[in-house]
């Protein structure tokens, strides 16, 4: 019987027997392609092997068998996102848009790790060794004892790794690697998965750490990094706006550390520079307080970050007013607008609403709710918030304000950057930070009355 064709989504890796314009699993359009190397039928029946898979008692694991310690690269922003350095025999995926700076970051990381004594190999499937050298020259890294290889054939790479026995291998990028044992074209879901599987299992077997680079793809011809997320221990995304120099390395999954940490970098002519005080950077473009502008005291992982939120509210010429959000969740904005209307009686009907997080930062914290509400109201009422005031807190559907975690951290950061006041939900532990006048309110109506005198 002829083998049925199978199709895979290049975005999420979902397998179907039928082609369709839209992936049923993740909703992506035009992402489904035929994938010869995959089958949707269940796994073949597995016979018993001759060797037993060895199991050990948890209590019998002595500390000598514990894995060797993590290695710190000295790039603090990277080490923190990794959960406190690189774990031996671990697999890490670094995803990001093309051109965002992944190769730059990883070449710098390779040099740092090599400099602290880790035997490191950087395998590029996209650039020749001469091109990598040119980049290294530009980054001032030519002295670092990093091994370079320009190779795309998986078999050749594994052979090289077997001979060289590095402690860290960086594969740039996973989409360019191909295995001759898989029938489909390089870049397909099957190839990308096979390459990731081979490399991670090799890494686990020999105790080498591996970092895979994956481009986020837009057109669906090439599999995206999401199809290998489940195979690795740590997933990091490198984000940023092309027009801005800030870059954020964000942990979205980490078996060895907190998964919400961020590292902040700045793209310079000499590569990526660490940003040790992101709040100062994100607020650097802020002018005098104006209507619609609010400073949100946020926390990313363990680190407080102040960012400016900007809102614009204007009468809409359209029958369906616009709701445009950059750097925040559009659904969450709709919720805040609904709560303002239903609980406080402030409608936004007939008004266009634009919300922007300055500096190209993306905020995911619910504690941004109150800052967003403040920005929307400030824009709508054309009234600036009291100067040098930060805002944070979650808003519930009832209009009640919920205290945010790490209040003290947020206040301390605000104080460090010269702020003198904070608007926040009541409740939680009584925290006070010298130099910050903390104004606490228990619901949105009280907040609006207090701040906007409505
Ligand atoms: P790159 O690391 O090649 O991106 P990726 O691997 O994610 O595709 O970075 C590409 C961009 O970075 C490119 O537009 C030029 C810029 N860049 C600098 O601004 N300074 C530098 O020192 C380097 C090496 C690159
Ligand atoms: Mg690259």
From TrEMBL:
UniProt record, GO biological process: recombinational repair
Entry superkingdom: Bacteria
Residues where ATP binds: 96-103
Pfam families given in the database record: AAA_25, ChlI, Zn_ribbon_LapB
Entry keyword annotation includes Metal-binding: yes
Locus of motif RadA KNRFG motif: 253-257
Gene Ontology MF terms: ATP binding; ATP-dependent DNA damage sensor activity; damaged DNA binding; hydrolase activity; zinc ion binding
Keywords associated with the record: ATP-binding, DNA damage, DNA repair, DNA-binding, Hydrolase, Metal-binding, Nucleotide-binding, Stress response, Zinc, Zinc-finger
Lineage: Bacteria, Pseudomonadati, Pseudomonadota, Alphaproteobacteria, Rhodobacterales
Region listing for Lon-protease-like, in residue ranges: 352-454
InterPro entries: AAA+_ATPase, DNA_repair_RadA, P-loop_NTPase, RecA_ATP-bd, Ribosomal_Su5_D2-typ_SF, Ribsml_uS5_D2-typ_fold_subgr, Rubredoxin_2
CC terms in the record's Gene Ontology section: cytosol
Protein's UniProt name: DNA repair protein RadA
Organism: Planktotalea frisia
Family: Belongs to the RecA family. RadA subfamily.
């Amino acid at each position: 019987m002829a083998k049925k064709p199978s199709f895979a989504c290049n975005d999420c890796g979902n397998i179907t027997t039928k082609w369709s314009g839209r992936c049923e699993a993740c909703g992506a359009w035009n992402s489904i392609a035929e994938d010869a190397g995959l089958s949707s039928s269940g796994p073949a029946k597995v016979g018993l092997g001759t060797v037993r898979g060895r199991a050990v008692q948890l209590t019998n694991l002595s500390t000598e068998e514990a894995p060797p310690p993590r290695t710190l690269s000295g790039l603090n922003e990277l080490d923190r996102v990794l959960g406190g350095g690189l774990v031996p025999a671990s697999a890490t995926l670094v995803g990001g848009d093309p051109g965002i700076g992944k190769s730059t970051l990883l070449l710098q990381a390779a040099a740092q790790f090599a400099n602290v004594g880790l035997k490191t190999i950087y395998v590029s499937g996209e650039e020749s060794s001469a091109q990598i050298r040119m980049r290294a020259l530009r980054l001032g890294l030519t002295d670092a004892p990093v091994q370079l290889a320009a190779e795309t054939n998986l078999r050749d790479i594994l052979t090289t790794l077997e001979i060289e026995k590095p402690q860290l291998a960086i594969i740039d990028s996973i989409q360019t690697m191909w295995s001759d044992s898989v029938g489909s074209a390089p870049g397909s879901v099957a190839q990308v998965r096979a390459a990731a599987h081979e490399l991670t299992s090799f890494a686990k077997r020999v105790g080498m750490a591996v970092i895979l680079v994956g481009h986020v793809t837009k057109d669906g011809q090439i599999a995206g990094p999401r199809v290998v997320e489940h195979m690795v221990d740590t997933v990091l995304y490198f984000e940023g706006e092309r027009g801005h120099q800030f870059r954020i390395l964000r942990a979205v999954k980490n078996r060895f550390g907190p998964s919400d940490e961020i590292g902040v970098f700045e793209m310079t002519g000499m590569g990526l520079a660490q940003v040790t005080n992101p709040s100062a950077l994100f607020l650097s473009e802020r002018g005098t307080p104006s209507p619609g502008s609010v400073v949100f005291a946020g926390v990313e992982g363990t680190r407080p970050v102040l960012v400016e939120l900007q809102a614009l509210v204007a009468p809409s010429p359209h029958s369906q007013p616009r709701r445009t959000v950059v750097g925040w969740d559009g659904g969450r904005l709709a919720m805040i607008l609904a709560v303002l209307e239903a609980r406080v009686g402030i409608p936004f009907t007939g008004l266009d609403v634009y919300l922007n997080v300055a500096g190209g930062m993306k905020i995911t914290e619910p504690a941004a709710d109150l800052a967003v509400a403040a920005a929307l109201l400030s824009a709508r009422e054309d009234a600036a918030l009291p100067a040098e005031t930060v805002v944070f807190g979650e808003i519930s559907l009832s209009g009640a304000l919920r205290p945010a975690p790490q209040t003290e951290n947020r206040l301390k950061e605000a104080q460090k950057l010269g702020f003198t006041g904070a608007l926040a939900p009541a409740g939680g532990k009584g925290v006070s930070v010298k130099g910050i006048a903390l104004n606490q309110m228990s619901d949105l109506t009280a907040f609006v009355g207090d701040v906007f005198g409505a």
